[in-house]
Amino acid sequence: MNSTIRDITLADEGQRRIDWVRRYMPLLNQLEKEFEATKPFKGKKIAVSVHLEAKTAYLCLVLAAGGAEVAVTGSNPLSTQDAVAAALVKAGLTVHAWHGATEEEYKEHLSRTLDIRPDIIIDDGGDLVAMLHSSRQELCDRIIGGCEETTTGVLRLRAREREGKLKFPMIAVNDAYCKHLFDNRYGTGQSVWDGIMRTTNLIIAGKNVVVAGYGWCGKGVAMKARGLGANVIITEVDPIKALEAAMDGFRVMTMLEAAEIGDVFITTTGCTKVIRREHFERMKDGVLLANAGHFDVEICKPDLEALAVEKRMMRHNVEGYVMKDGRVLNLLAQGRLVNLASGDGHPAEIMDMSFALQALSVQYLIENGDKLEPKVYSVPRFIDYRVARMKLQAMGINIDSLTPEQERYLMSY
């Protein structure tokens, strides 16, 4: 199948990026060796829509090593790295993606990826699933199942399941303990600040940082902000999460209150219009606006456009919206995922765990998919525990085991 990429001559650079992360992903190293020997995916076709950078590329190569025919696209136009896409094509995989794709091109790339007629899908944000339930419904009957990588995608899946419209089983990889406790917290926490600091070249210490949402991603962003010396403010709609944030030592207030004092605003909610007109109208000159949610809807760009009398390119990936009174509100990465659109995404060691979960969940679907109903499933606990033990082993850490007596004690009443 022909690929759709920018420039095949970038392949050598892309391969260097893949080789670099491969050195720091021991779990995928181990699974690659296992899959090469056992070929659990032989004869199967897998369509992948995940942020197309080096770590994702290595996951795809591991699946291919297990015998799968793999077609790949990106899950966000600004996170695709053209050099990595070229390297995958050179390695024999099918790729339909390029950096900066228009909305129409992005949808075309998704559809071409599905032309492989997949048995399994790996989705990030739910766009593949959405297309399969709309313009490509003819492919649903052959799909064994799929895996969803992120919170936004799981929310969309559960909404579809509640309405009785989900046509095949999906595993919520995002909800696995070895995913959200580490990827969402430590991965997002580090990579968001990497993207912001790389893009702005500004100090974080001493600034008022407003984090919208105190889920696992928000916790990670807030924790790293405090470590960088920021004064951290949390906004929430969930009273339990707000209470948790307060007891973790953060200031908690409404976004309307925070708008007047914040220097840096970061959205991590998965919801729409979290920061909007009434907030922009109160903000200080020079604030930074960044989004860490999957879609570019959390910071309301139409409201920014309506309020601005001018828009300036301040730096690469920084757009300055000039208000009538002269204040400039700086939007990073067009309001898209700042850690990927302005950086390289999560650290390799973190994605090693998340993608080990993906690979093992794909294997589980192939072995058990015929027994599963079209519902959203959790990652089986034995997979979560296997990934945790693999990670501990790779880190050189040993832990205790229960003795038979302790097991009997815990099972008694």
UniProtKB/TrEMBL annotation:
Q: Which SUPFAM superfamilies match?
A: Formate/glycerate dehydrogenase catalytic domain-like (SSF52283), NAD(P)-binding Rossmann-fold domains (SSF51735)
Q: How is the cofactor bound?
A: Binds 1 NAD(+) per subunit.
- Where do transmembrane segments lie in this chain? none
Check the record and name the PANTHER family matching this protein: ADENOSYLHOMOCYSTEINASE (PTHR23420:SF0)
Pathway, per Swiss-Prot/TrEMBL?
A: Amino-acid biosynthesis; L-homocysteine biosynthesis; L-homocysteine from S-adenosyl-L-homocysteine: step 1/1
This enzyme catalyses: S-adenosyl-L-homocysteine + H2O = L-homocysteine + adenosine
State the CDD domains in the record.
SAHH
Which residues hold NAD(+)? 150-152, 184, 213-220, 236, 292-294, 339, 346
Top-level EC class: hydrolase
Q: Could you name the domain of life of the organism this protein comes from?
A: Bacteria
Which example biological process does GO assign this protein? one-carbon metabolic process
Q: Which organism is it from?
A: Caldicoprobacter faecalis
Q: Where does substrate bind?
A: 124, 149, 179, 183
Under the GO molecular function aspect, what terms does this record hold? adenosylhomocysteinase activity
Task: Report which gene this protein is encoded by.
Answer: ahcY
**Where, subcellularly, is it found?**
Cytoplasm
Required co-factor?
NAD(+)
Q: Which GO terms describe its cellular component?
A: cytosol
Q: What is this protein called?
A: Adenosylhomocysteinase
Please provide the record's keywords in A-Z order.
Cytoplasm, Hydrolase, NAD, One-carbon metabolism
Traced from the root, the source organism's taxonomic lineage reads: Bacteria, Bacillati, Bacillota, Clostridia, Caldicoprobacterales
- State which Enzyme Commission number(s) the record gives: 3.13.2.1
Q: What does this protein do?
A: May play a key role in the regulation of the intracellular concentration of adenosylhomocysteine.
Domain annotation S-adenosyl-L-homocysteine hydrolase NAD binding: ranges:
184-345
Give the family, as the similarity comment puts it: Belongs to the adenosylhomocysteinase family.
Question: What HAMAP family does the entry give?
Answer: AdoHcyase
